[in-house]
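look at this fold:
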Amino acid sequence: MNTKLILNYLSELSNNNNRDWYHLHKAEYKAANEEFEALLQALILEIGKTDKSILHNVPKDLTFKLVRDTRFSNDKSPYNPSFRAHIAAKGKLPVPVGYYLMIRPGNGSFLGGGLFADMFKDATAMVRSYIAENSTEWDKIIGAPDFRKYFTVQGTALKNVPAGYDKEHPQAEYLKYKSWYLEYPVEDKDLLDIEGFLPKMTEIFIAMKPFNDYLNKALADFQMPAR
Protein backbone atom coordinates (compact mmCIF):
# COMPACT_ATOMS: atom_id res chain seq x y z
CA MET A 1 0.00 0.00 0.00
CA ASN A 2 1.48 3.31 -1.09
CA THR A 3 -0.01 5.85 1.31
CA LYS A 4 2.44 8.50 0.05
CA LEU A 5 0.36 8.59 -3.15
CA ILE A 6 -2.75 9.33 -1.06
CA LEU A 7 -1.16 12.12 0.97
CA ASN A 8 0.53 13.69 -2.07
CA TYR A 9 -2.68 13.74 -4.10
CA LEU A 10 -4.75 15.21 -1.27
CA SER A 11 -2.08 17.84 -0.56
CA GLU A 12 -2.12 18.89 -4.21
CA LEU A 13 -5.92 18.99 -4.22
CA SER A 14 -5.90 21.15 -1.09
CA ASN A 15 -3.54 23.60 -2.81
CA ASN A 16 -5.51 23.55 -6.09
CA ASN A 17 -9.11 23.20 -4.92
CA ASN A 18 -10.85 23.93 -8.20
CA ARG A 19 -12.67 21.92 -10.85
CA ASP A 20 -10.13 22.52 -13.61
CA TRP A 21 -7.26 21.05 -11.58
CA TYR A 22 -9.40 18.16 -10.36
CA HIS A 23 -10.44 17.13 -13.86
CA LEU A 24 -6.88 17.46 -15.21
CA HIS A 25 -5.61 15.08 -12.51
CA LYS A 26 -8.14 12.26 -12.68
CA ALA A 27 -5.34 9.69 -13.18
CA GLU A 28 -3.67 10.76 -9.91
CA TYR A 29 -7.03 10.58 -8.13
CA LYS A 30 -7.62 7.06 -9.46
CA ALA A 31 -4.18 5.87 -8.31
CA ALA A 32 -4.58 7.41 -4.84
CA ASN A 33 -8.10 6.06 -4.46
CA GLU A 34 -6.92 2.55 -5.36
CA GLU A 35 -4.37 2.75 -2.56
CA PHE A 36 -7.06 3.95 -0.12
CA GLU A 37 -9.30 1.04 -1.09
CA ALA A 38 -6.38 -1.36 -0.58
CA LEU A 39 -5.94 0.04 2.93
CA LEU A 40 -9.66 -0.40 3.62
CA GLN A 41 -9.49 -4.01 2.44
CA ALA A 42 -6.57 -4.68 4.78
CA LEU A 43 -8.50 -3.11 7.68
CA ILE A 44 -11.65 -5.12 6.89
CA LEU A 45 -9.65 -8.36 7.03
CA GLU A 46 -7.79 -7.43 10.23
CA ILE A 47 -10.74 -5.97 12.17
CA GLY A 48 -12.89 -8.79 10.77
CA LYS A 49 -10.89 -11.32 12.80
CA THR A 50 -12.65 -9.82 15.84
CA ASP A 51 -15.80 -8.34 14.24
CA LYS A 52 -17.10 -10.72 11.56
CA SER A 53 -20.10 -8.44 10.85
CA ILE A 54 -17.94 -6.27 8.56
CA LEU A 55 -16.25 -8.97 6.46
CA HIS A 56 -18.78 -8.83 3.59
CA ASN A 57 -17.95 -5.20 2.79
CA VAL A 58 -16.42 -4.11 -0.52
CA PRO A 59 -14.07 -1.12 -0.08
CA LYS A 60 -15.46 0.98 -2.96
CA ASP A 61 -18.91 0.88 -1.33
CA LEU A 62 -17.58 2.38 1.92
CA THR A 63 -16.01 5.59 0.65
CA PHE A 64 -17.42 9.12 0.55
CA LYS A 65 -17.15 11.52 -2.37
CA LEU A 66 -14.64 14.34 -2.49
CA VAL A 67 -17.28 16.77 -3.78
CA ARG A 68 -18.54 19.13 -1.09
CA ASP A 69 -22.09 20.41 -0.63
CA THR A 70 -21.41 24.16 -0.60
CA ARG A 71 -25.03 25.36 -0.51
CA PHE A 72 -25.02 26.22 3.20
CA SER A 73 -21.30 26.84 3.70
CA ASN A 74 -19.22 29.99 3.64
CA ASP A 75 -16.40 27.89 2.19
CA LYS A 76 -17.24 27.50 -1.51
CA SER A 77 -14.24 25.33 -2.44
CA PRO A 78 -15.71 22.44 -4.44
CA TYR A 79 -13.76 19.52 -2.92
CA ASN A 80 -13.06 18.12 0.52
CA PRO A 81 -9.34 17.20 0.34
CA SER A 82 -9.67 14.05 2.44
CA PHE A 83 -10.38 10.38 1.86
CA ARG A 84 -13.11 9.09 4.18
CA ALA A 85 -14.79 5.75 4.78
CA HIS A 86 -17.08 4.04 7.29
CA ILE A 87 -16.75 0.28 7.81
CA ALA A 88 -19.81 -1.20 9.50
CA ALA A 89 -22.29 -4.07 9.28
CA LYS A 90 -24.39 -2.07 6.81
CA GLY A 91 -21.52 -0.41 5.02
CA LYS A 92 -21.17 3.35 5.16
CA LEU A 93 -24.62 4.09 6.59
CA PRO A 94 -24.22 5.95 9.90
CA VAL A 95 -26.26 3.30 11.75
CA PRO A 96 -25.25 0.69 12.77
CA VAL A 97 -22.11 2.45 13.94
CA GLY A 98 -18.70 1.11 13.03
CA TYR A 99 -15.18 2.16 12.20
CA TYR A 100 -14.51 5.50 10.54
CA LEU A 101 -11.28 6.50 8.81
CA MET A 102 -10.37 9.95 7.55
CA ILE A 103 -7.05 10.67 5.82
CA ARG A 104 -6.24 14.37 5.58
CA PRO A 105 -2.68 15.66 5.06
CA GLY A 106 -1.15 18.03 7.58
CA ASN A 107 -1.74 15.63 10.49
CA GLY A 108 -5.51 16.01 10.10
CA SER A 109 -6.27 12.27 9.88
CA PHE A 110 -8.13 10.27 12.52
CA LEU A 111 -9.65 6.92 13.38
CA GLY A 112 -13.25 7.31 14.52
CA GLY A 113 -16.12 5.35 15.97
CA GLY A 114 -19.52 5.81 17.54
CA LEU A 115 -22.45 7.94 16.49
CA PHE A 116 -21.95 11.20 14.54
CA ALA A 117 -25.66 11.96 14.29
CA ASP A 118 -26.85 15.31 15.63
CA MET A 119 -29.32 15.39 12.74
CA PHE A 120 -30.99 12.08 13.70
CA LYS A 121 -33.17 13.03 16.67
CA ASP A 122 -34.60 9.51 16.95
CA ALA A 123 -31.11 8.03 17.23
CA THR A 124 -30.16 10.57 19.90
CA ALA A 125 -33.30 9.74 21.90
CA MET A 126 -32.64 6.00 21.65
CA VAL A 127 -29.06 6.25 22.88
CA ARG A 128 -29.93 8.71 25.63
CA SER A 129 -32.66 6.42 26.98
CA TYR A 130 -30.41 3.38 26.74
CA ILE A 131 -27.65 5.10 28.73
CA ALA A 132 -30.21 6.15 31.33
CA GLU A 133 -31.37 2.54 31.71
CA ASN A 134 -27.97 0.83 31.33
CA SER A 135 -25.59 3.19 33.07
CA THR A 136 -23.48 0.54 34.82
CA GLU A 137 -22.56 -1.10 31.51
CA TRP A 138 -21.78 2.32 29.97
CA ASP A 139 -19.53 3.18 32.91
CA LYS A 140 -17.72 -0.15 32.62
CA ILE A 141 -17.09 0.34 28.87
CA ILE A 142 -15.79 3.92 29.01
CA GLY A 143 -13.80 3.16 32.15
CA ALA A 144 -12.02 0.10 30.72
CA PRO A 145 -8.20 0.50 30.50
CA ASP A 146 -8.12 -0.34 26.76
CA PHE A 147 -10.74 2.35 26.14
CA ARG A 148 -9.16 5.03 28.31
CA LYS A 149 -5.75 4.36 26.75
CA TYR A 150 -7.02 5.76 23.44
CA PHE A 151 -10.32 7.62 23.82
CA THR A 152 -12.56 10.09 25.55
CA VAL A 153 -16.19 10.28 24.48
CA GLN A 154 -16.84 13.36 22.33
CA GLY A 155 -19.99 14.98 20.96
CA THR A 156 -22.05 18.14 20.94
CA ALA A 157 -24.00 18.53 24.15
CA LEU A 158 -26.89 20.47 25.64
CA LYS A 159 -26.22 22.82 28.55
CA ASN A 160 -28.59 20.91 30.81
CA VAL A 161 -29.88 17.37 31.23
CA PRO A 162 -32.94 17.21 28.95
CA ALA A 163 -36.48 17.12 30.33
CA GLY A 164 -37.62 13.68 31.40
CA TYR A 165 -34.22 12.56 32.72
CA ASP A 166 -32.90 12.62 36.27
CA LYS A 167 -30.48 15.52 36.76
CA GLU A 168 -28.76 13.44 39.47
CA HIS A 169 -28.34 10.41 37.21
CA PRO A 170 -24.81 8.92 37.49
CA GLN A 171 -24.34 9.46 33.74
CA ALA A 172 -26.05 12.87 33.68
CA GLU A 173 -23.20 14.46 31.72
CA TYR A 174 -23.58 11.91 28.91
CA LEU A 175 -27.37 12.33 28.85
CA LYS A 176 -26.75 15.91 27.65
CA TYR A 177 -25.02 14.65 24.51
CA LYS A 178 -26.65 14.59 21.07
CA SER A 179 -23.87 12.46 19.53
CA TRP A 180 -21.40 10.10 21.17
CA TYR A 181 -18.25 9.49 19.15
CA LEU A 182 -14.55 8.72 19.40
CA GLU A 183 -11.59 10.19 17.53
CA TYR A 184 -7.99 9.03 17.66
CA PRO A 185 -5.67 11.50 15.84
CA VAL A 186 -3.16 10.12 13.34
CA GLU A 187 -0.03 11.88 12.10
CA ASP A 188 1.19 11.82 8.50
CA LYS A 189 4.40 10.03 9.52
CA ASP A 190 2.37 7.10 10.87
CA LEU A 191 0.42 6.80 7.62
CA LEU A 192 3.64 6.91 5.59
CA ASP A 193 4.79 3.81 7.52
CA ILE A 194 1.47 2.06 6.91
CA GLU A 195 2.86 -1.48 7.09
CA GLY A 196 4.19 -0.73 10.57
CA PHE A 197 1.15 1.28 11.63
CA LEU A 198 -1.58 -1.10 10.41
CA PRO A 199 -1.41 -3.35 13.51
CA LYS A 200 -1.79 -0.26 15.74
CA MET A 201 -4.76 0.96 13.65
CA THR A 202 -6.38 -2.45 14.03
CA GLU A 203 -5.75 -2.45 17.78
CA ILE A 204 -7.31 1.00 18.15
CA PHE A 205 -10.37 0.08 16.09
CA ILE A 206 -10.88 -3.14 18.06
CA ALA A 207 -10.66 -1.13 21.29
CA MET A 208 -13.74 0.77 20.03
CA LYS A 209 -15.82 -2.36 19.54
CA PRO A 210 -17.46 -2.57 23.02
CA PHE A 211 -18.46 1.10 22.70
CA ASN A 212 -19.86 0.56 19.21
CA ASP A 213 -21.66 -2.62 20.31
CA TYR A 214 -23.32 -0.72 23.17
CA LEU A 215 -24.56 2.02 20.83
CA ASN A 216 -25.77 -0.54 18.30
CA LYS A 217 -27.84 -2.27 20.98
CA ALA A 218 -29.38 1.13 21.75
CA LEU A 219 -30.02 1.71 18.03
CA ALA A 220 -31.41 -1.75 17.21
CA ASP A 221 -34.79 -0.37 16.13
CA PHE A 222 -33.50 2.77 14.39
CA GLN A 223 -34.78 3.37 10.86
CA MET A 224 -32.93 5.71 8.51
CA PRO A 225 -35.24 8.61 7.58
CA ALA A 226 -36.73 8.39 4.09
CA ARG A 227 -35.14 10.83 1.66
